[in-house]
Specification:
The protein is an alpha/beta fold. The chain is 47% helix and 12% strand.
Length: 363
């Protein structure tokens, strides 16, 4: 199947959903060779992945992945893994010694959304040194990621938030990591990572680093049964809503998809400078998040508030972004967001450790 698919894609032909499902099954079952996988995903990238191809691939991965019973009201906050490949490192890091340029905005956003009363599930993974992935900063915050599915389900029920560590998901893609690293470009697997959605949330906020992908990914989310979603691309911050420039937003709601742009000034927010949202090592990024949750004001808080506001809106907690901004600020100023973090640290460290010895990546 994959040989025929390579030939078709090289000729700029689009695969049917059935063809893509067949290829992905060969890849996840270990039938396809390393050379075939590398050829296929490179050719697919050069052609451009269609919504149908991405949908079919995501369904195969979802069928293999672990499910977390998080309830019907959970919101998924996921991002394209834009720091995984060499191609995108220059957009997120200054060389290979100083860590990521932008701090872990989505991690802080998740805590503020939970502090505002939403149930939040976020899949996390590590990044290669010196980049700081979500799992890295979560470790630095004192949260234990080595949780069983049952523990995660209790966590989101009791605390209102859980971070799902990638090795737990067991999605059939473990052998793909080395291929992706050697190729060094974005591939379809970057698109698939945030679509696995172990909590099976019906509401999702998805960040992408290419503005041309917002409509494509909104269609994919609709195809996968997501009821409400925002797919965002922000200037400078790429896969987050931006405080330093405009944000392209593609919204999925009531089976309809529409695209619009948001500027900070439209919401009465001061446009920030990129230096104001810079991050660093996992310890530095953890300290930034703690400062925000403790009420420190500035550009870093503003960008997190903006992103949390979008979550409140798409989850139906706020009528519009202005009301969402108010809720986000209340979550911080009431110390509810910080309380969620403190409870999360206590809960996860009180549980029996599960994954670390077998799966932890050296960082």
């Amino acid at each position: 199947m994959i040989r025929e698919a390579i030939s078709k894609v090289v000729s700029k032909g689009d695969l049917t959903e059935a063809e893509m499902e067949g290829v992905m099954k060969e890849i996840t079952m270990g039938i396809a060779s390393v050379e075939q996988i590398a050829s296929f995903i490179t050719a697919l990238r050069m052609k451009g992945e269609t919504p149908e191809e991405t949908t079919a691939a995501a369904r195969v991965i979802q069928d293999k992945a672990l499910n977390i019973n998080a309830g019907n009201e959970v919101v998924s906050l996921d991002r394209e893994e834009i720091t995984a490949e060499r191609e995108t490192i220059l957009s997120t890091a200054t060389g290979f010694t100083e860590g990521t340029n932008v701090f872990n905005i989505s991690t802080a956003t998740a805590l503020i959304a939970a502090g505002g009363g939403l149930k939040v599930a976020k899949s996390v993974r590590r990044s290669a040194f010196p980049l700081c992935g979500c799992a890295d900063v979560i470790d630095a915050l004192g949260i234990n990621l080595d949780m069983t599915p049952t523990q995660l389900e209790r966590c989101i029920k009791e605390i209102g938030i859980c971070f799902i560590y990638e090795p737990l998901v067991k999605n059939g893609l473990q052998h793909i990591a080395a291929i992706r690293e050697k190729i060094g470009i974005r591939t379809i697997f970057n698109l698939l990572d945030p679509l696995i959605n172990p909590a099976r949330a019906k509401v999702q906020v998805l960040g992408v680093y290419d503005p041309g992908l917002t409509e494509t990914m909104a269609i994919v989310l609709k195809n996968l049964g997501i009821k409400k979603a925002l797919v965002v691309y922000g200037e400078d911050t790429l896969d987050e809503m931006s405080i330093t420039g405009k944000t392209k937003v593609t919204e999925l709601k009531d089976e309809e998809i529409k695209t619009y742009f948001i500027h900070p000034e439209d919401l009465g927010m001061k446009r920030g400078e990129f230096n104001g949202i810079r991050g660093g090592t996992k310890s530095q990024n953890a300290e930034i998040i703690l400062e925000i949750l403790k009420g420190h004001r500035g550009t870093k808080r503003d960008i997190v508030v903006l992103n949390a506001a979008a979550v409140f809106v798409i989850a139906g907690k706020a009528r519009d972004l202005n009301e969402g901004i108010k809720l986000a600020n209340e979550s911080i100023d009431s110390r509810e967001a910080l309380n969620r973090l403190e409870r999360l640290v206590k809960f996860t460290n009180g549980e029996h450790r599960f994954l670390r010895n077998a799966y932890e990546t050296e960082v």
